[in-house]
Amino acid sequence: MNLLDPQGPVAAANSTILVDSVFIMLVIVVPTIVAILAFAFWFRASNTKARYQPDFVYSGRVEMVVWSIPALTVILLGGVAWIGSHQLDPAAPVPGTGSPVRIQAVSLDWKWLFIYPDQRIATVNTLTVPAGAELNFQLTSSSVMNTFFIPQLGSMIYTMNGMVTKLNLRADNEGKLQGLSAHFSGDGFPDMMFDVNVISPLAFPDWVAGTAKTDAVLNEASYKKLMQQGIERGRPSYRLEDPRLFDLIANQHIPPGPGPELISEAGRPHSGGHDAR
Amino acid sequence: MLGKLDWSAIPFDQPIPLAAGAVVLVAILAVLAWVVAKGHLPYLWHEWITSVDHKRIGVMYILLASVMLLRGGSDAIMMRIQQAVAYQSQGYLPPEHYNQIFSAHGTIMIFFVAMPFVIGLMNLVVPLQLGVRDVAFPTLNSVGFWMTATGALLVNISLVVGEFARTGWLAFPPLSELSYSPGVGVDYYAWSLQISGVGTLVAGINLVTTVLKLRTKGMNYLRMPMFCWTTLASNLLIVAAFPILTATLAMLLLDRYLGFHFFTNEAGGNVMMFMNLIWAWGHPEVYILVLPAFGIFSEVVSTFSGKALFGYRSMVLATMAICVISFMVWLHHFFTMGAGPDVNAIFGIASMIIAVPTGVKIYNWLFTMYGGRIRFATPMLWAVGFMVTFIVGGLTGVLLAVPPADFMLHNSMFLVAHFHNVIIGGVLFGAFAGFEYWFPKAFGFRLDERWGRAAFWFTFLGFYVTFMPLYIAGMLGMTRRMQHYDVAAWRPWMIVAAVGMAVLTIGVIGQIVQLVVSIRNREALRDRTGDPWDGRSLEWATSSPPPVFNFAFNPDVRGEDAYWDMKVHARQQSLEHDRPDYQDIEMPRNSPTGFVCAFFATIMGFALIWHIWWMVVLGGLGAWATFVVFAWRDHDEYVIPAEDVAAIDRINREERRGLVSMAGTV
Questions:
Q1: Where exactly are the transmembrane stretches of this chain (chain B) (predicted)?
Q2: CATH, domain range A101-257
Q3: N or C, fewer C-beta in 10 Å, chain A?
Q4: B40-591+636-665 is classed in which CATH architecture?
């Protein structure tokens, strides 16, 4: 999950900006730290060779320089931020080979549901995508906030109930990656890691066909069961009955997921915690 | 009768909080018993609990912060151990416990350690630096302190009665809404912050008024010590920002108690509004904490370099620039929410702009050292340690302000490392520097230097060993608040961080030992001159500890570094006039208002948390009655006769004369 080992263009651009920004700042920061240590050492009281200048308390030239150095750095970095924000807007298209794959991600308590509306399939806690194709994500949440993040593909984004966020990514190399939720969402939060299988574009239709053969069906009823609080250890997949399921979730036609069931009236509900273990 | 409260609220099945609670309870009872048995109770009551003396209140704030630092630090130790062991296992803390710990850790460290520490130092020092006898509203000051203490008490009660929030320190909805957090944890969180927020707000109003309206003769704005400027900026931010927090939490509480829908998923509630509101308070809060620390470092660097602060006006400008800009950057806390690129870029650049005045401050401290004669007493060690550490934190902060970089690092361990880098490296180092620097002023003896140095080095190195690995873990994709994980690459860094935590803990223990050793050797460490560091501002112009009226005469200020000028002046003319014309001094009477108000606020807060409505009414009426009684008081001041003032002042004057004549010959 190393951020400096990007597996797609978005992550590559993100991490390039990250590294560049660090280097731009190091040019200023390293000399400053050296100067602090050097001045502190040289002007120590016991050093008789250092000249004591108690009246050196203002210098227009020095002020000019000390305002300019950080200002120029920030102008440079501000340019990086402005251009980067526009080029790497999560909603900006990421052209790829072949036809884009639409994926609708729903964060549940505490698992990820990935709906492929065009392929009429859905998977939980595992995301399978073809290498090289543009991936158009639409994201929402069944209940509380989460953040969808595949570190080696780049750009994370929030999922919120009743709202849809957009994210476009591309995975360039076949292989297994990992994704996670990057926004705390309750007791089962650490188990919201998911697998990302990047497979060849040729194998993708076969995978879709294989997945569609499953008996499990995702419809409103089975979704409501899935959205109960709990952790999913397996990697179930479903045939999608209604390709508009995501819209029903996002526009709250299906009401938000329930929280923990209260065992006692007292202030200490245990259900969530026990589920998590 | 008792609302939601019954025996199931006590976590009999969880040994850790129960044992911790029992130990604390026994300790408190033991101290109380000792106090009563030794007959110290009247002294405590008259001299401390009901005191409206800004110095005493400042000391009590710092004591509260120190105690809570130990509590928040214990949480930190437990978290670091959990993440070191919870690789492919559940560790030793189940999620519902771990989640409470990190929520409590953040809440406590910000609201009940950092805030009271800096407010305590401001309370203690600012009136002295301004050359005045007290803050603008002395009794309100006491109320503010006791309200803060009430909040801290409620947070600690949650350890054994019920639970604390399991939502993180900002209690983001909808997770913090009733449907997802039905327990009392979020209520403990919200009510303790509401009550202590009242305390913070009145402290802010008080200090702003003090700086604006109560300055001694000749102390115009551009002669104020830097710490007074940063106090002004910080408290302006408090006055402007804390009402936002109060309103936001009030809306959350309305959602939870009365079925409103401000931030719920249903019925048009909007979580994004909460995010915006809480950060509209939260970002200024960062500067509320760090600006006073900047002020402390300005005083320390200048004093121990034997020079006036370099570029004073530039520093004032930088301080006020930070104060204003800090209100315009809140959105950088959620670049990943999906706002458009224009919005993200503008807030990113605004955030970077804050780095300019901050950078200027660093350079001005640098040039204050240039040409100085630097004495490396403990406060100066903290200051140099801060400068180096804070630059690293500033670098990672500006990095996080670049939206595309933040898209990778948001909410990660990198972020955790960053804000600890600036809060420990900035605020905590500043608080410690201020503690070491002004301790002799508050108590009349210095702290032990050897233990102070040892504490510094352990804390300094411990900080790096703990938090540099977290930067790396963040670069490896690790997000925050993980109760357990299965990624092998993260593990070694979590173990190193736990080792660092041990070193950091030794540093904190070193500081406790330093305090104990210093109290024991206080006669040897005694400072009779009131000016142990060859200081430059007016707090050093009076005795240590200062008399209740601070100054026998209102000092007359003729320039920056008021006391330094006086000393130079005195050396040249070798006179401090001999038979001053002492006058009677009027001082505010002590008042139990603050303590009694807080007593009722505690009852009310606890009752609100547990839905014990009759008790809510009782607490509310009690607090109101206390206020009424105070408002109808007949005598609020007493007079210290001129002879007493003269007697107190003469002793200090003799000691000081020795100092001045000695310094004059060097």
A1: 16-37, 58-81, 101-125, 145-169, 189-214, 226-254, 274-297, 309-331, 343-367, 379-402, 422-439, 451-473, 493-517, 595-616
A2: 2.60.40.420
A3: C
A4: Up-down Bundle (1.20)
